[in-house]
Write a structure and sequence with these properties.
This protein has one domain. The longest helix is centred in the first third of the chain and has 20 residues. By secondary structure, the protein is an alpha/beta fold. Helix 2 crosses helix 4. The strands form 3 sheets. It has a 7-stranded mixed sheet with strand order 1-9-8-2-5-3-4, sandwiched between helices. It has a two-stranded antiparallel ribbon with strand order 6-7. Strands 10-11 form a two-stranded parallel sheet. A hairpin with a 6-residue loop joins strand 8 and strand 9. The chain has 12 helices and 11 strands.
C-alpha cells in the first residue's frame, strides 16, 4: 500500500512535494514537543549560529527542510529512472572516476544532510554500489525503503554482521559501498568523539573498512536547490589522515556548516546506546 502511494505521489512535480513537505515539517514540529525540543537543542548547541535569538531564522528553515526530506522520497525512490539525472547537478564526479582508475574500492560517506538518498542513487546509475541501511522502527516502511534504495545498480545490506560482511566483499572486489557516517552505532561498534562540541557515540566501521581494504573514502552530499529545481551533489575525497573518529566528525561538521538548514538536527545523535557506558557529560540523552 505504501509503495503504491509513493509511486502515485512520484508523478507530482518536485516543487509541489517540497511545498507539502514544508507544511508537514511545521505540523510535526507543532504536534511533537519532544521532537521539537531535540531539534532546537541540537541546533542551538552546535555553534553554527550564535544563540537562540540568532538561530530562530535558521530554525524556521530547518523545520521546513526536514519535512521536505520525507515528501521528496516519493520522487527519489519511485520517480522515472531519468528523473535522477535530470534533477542532479554535479561537477565533481571526476573525483569518483579518479578512484576507479586507481582500481580501488570506494567507500561513500553520506551524512544526514539534504537529500542524502539521491546521492547514492546518482552513484548507482553509474556503478555497482552496496548501501548499508538500518531497518526502520515501523515495519511497514521497510519494503518501500528496500525498493527505493535498491534501484539501478544498488544493493541494500542490513546494518548487522551480515551486512558488514557484504560491504567488505564489495570493497575487496573493487566495488563501491555507502553508509551514513553520522548514524549512531550499536554498543561495541563505536567510540565517544565530539560532534559539534558534544560527545557522540561515533562508528568505528569507516576506519576499519579503510584499513582492511585500502578503499578510497569519498564524502557525498546532496543539497536541495530552491523552488524544487533539484539537487547539487558533491563528491570529495577524504584523506586517510582524517578517518579516525574525531577527525571524521570534523569533516562532517565542515560539510554541515556549508548548509546547516538542511541537516537533520532532529536526529537523536547524542543518545547513549543501550548497554554502553556514557561519557562524563550530563548532556547526553540515554536511549529509551
Amino acid at each position: 500500500m505504501l509503495v503504491w502511494l509513493l509511486r502515485l505521489l512520484a508523478r507530482l512535480p518536485l516543487r509541489w512535494l517540497h511545498a507539502a513537505g514544508a507544511v508537514l515539517g511545521w505540523i510535526t514540529y507543532g504536534l511533537s514537543p519532544a521532537y521539537a525540543a531535540r531539534m532546537r537543542d541540537n541546533l542551538y548547541a552546535s555553534g553554527v549560529c550564535a544563540g537562540p535569538t540568532e538561530c530562530k531564522p535558521l530554525l524556521r528553515e530547518v523545520i521546513a527542510e526536514t519535512g521536505k526530506a520525507v515528501t521528496e522520497l516519493a520522487a527519489v525512490w519511485f520517480g522515472r529512472d531519468e528523473l535522477i539525472s535530470r534533477l542532479v547537478r554535479c561537477d565533481t564526479w571526476h573525483v569518483v572516476e579518479g578512484a576507479l582508475r586507481a582500481g580501488r574500492g570506494i567507500l561513500f560517506l553520506t551524512p544526514h544532510l539534504g537529500c542524502f538518498e539521491i546521492a547514492a542513487l546518482y552513484a548507482a546509475q553509474r556503478l555497482p554500489i552496496t548501501v548499508l541501511y538500518r531497518p526502520p522502527k515501523l515495519a511497514f516502511v521497510e519494503p518501500a525503503m528496500i525498493a527505493g534504495r535498491g534501484r539501478f545498480n544498488a544493493t541494500v545490506a542490513p546494518a548487522n554482521l551480515r551486512g558488514v560482511r557484504l560491504l567488505y566483499k564489495a570493497l575487496t572486489r573493487g566495488q563501491a559501498v555507502g553508509l551514513l557516517p553520522d548514524q549512531a552505532p550499536g554498543v561495541g561498534e563505536g567510540v565517544w568523539a565530539d560532534f559539534f562540541g558534544r560527545p557522540a557515540y561515533t562508528m568505528t566501521l569507516v576506519a576499519r573498512l579503510r584499513r582492511s581494504t585500502g578503499a578510497a573514502v569519498i564524502m557525498a552530499s546532496a543539497e536541495r536547490l530552491p523552488r524544487g529545481a533539484g539537487y547539487c551533489v558533491r563528491f570529495e575525497e577524504v584523506t586517510a589522515g582524517r578517518l579516525d573518529e574525531p577527525a571524521l566528525n570534523r569533516v562532517i561538521e565542515d560539510v554541515v556548516r556549508r548548509c546547516p538548514a538542511q541537516y537533520l538536527w532532529s536526529y537523536n545523535r547524542y543518545k547513549v546506546p543501550a548497554g554502553a557506558e556514557p561519557p562524563p557529560r550530563k548532556s547526553v540523552i540515554r536511549e529509551s
